[in-house]
């Protein structure tokens, strides 16, 4: 199991570990005196559904000083169906005419020191709906790949600075809507749905 945020501080041969799980709000921790570096592991939320993509996992060691204020905002995993985007910018999933909704994207987790944003661990994409259950994309790549789909066209992957464009339904149908939303730099787009057949809606993008 990957912990959402784990911090290990080192001071004079002793270690202290702090773990932050999802709460739906910003959490803070003050670096103890005599600690001059911390080892961190930060992960984004997993996409919803049976094959939701894993969130990004970022690890490393950062120099700090005693008294530094560290803040973390842990992203949540995506759920299923409308309104299912995970806290932290996950795009929402969609319903299905055959009772197989698509999954929402996982939310991003952010890590800051002294008010300066240091790390954003992106969330994973949600599972496609219908009877295809196409897997959601994995967070953490500098340039995301096009979403996999059995029907229709998957959404384009985002980059480190921009969101990906939404996909279109099977054969371009669904004139009254039905296209996936574009993502932005901080928000995964909502999955699209084929309004003619309604069988395999797309999953939401990761935050």
Question: How do the strands and helices of this protein lay out in sequence?
Answer:
Blueprint: E1 5-11, E2 14-20, E3 27-30, E4 37-43, E5 57-63, E6 69-73, E7 109-113, E8 116-121
Antiparallel strand pairs: 1-2, 1-4, 3-6, 4-5, 6-7, 7-8
Written account of the structure:
- The protein has 207 residues and is mostly beta strands.
- Helices cover 0% and strands 23% of the residues.
- Strands 2-1-4-5 form a four-stranded antiparallel beta sheet, with no helix packed on it. A four-stranded antiparallel beta sheet has the order 3-6-7-8, with no helix packed on it.
- A hairpin with a 2-residue loop joins strand 1 (5-11) and strand 2.
- The chain is elongated.
- The two termini are 21 Å apart.
- The model has no long low-confidence stretch (mean pLDDT 82).
The chain-level mean pLDDT equals 82
Class of secondary structure makeup: mainly beta
Strand content: 15-25%
Give the topology string: H per helix, E per strand: EEEEEEEE
Uncertain parts: none
Using only CA atoms, what is the Rg? Answer: 19 Å
What is the tally of beta strands? 8
Helix residue percentage: under 10%
Biggest sheet: strands, sense, closure?
4 strands, antiparallel
How are the strands of the biggest sheet laid out side by side? Answer: 2-1-4-5
What overall geometry do the principal axes of the alpha carbons give? elongated
Kindly report how far apart the N and C termini lie. 21 Å
Number of helices: 0
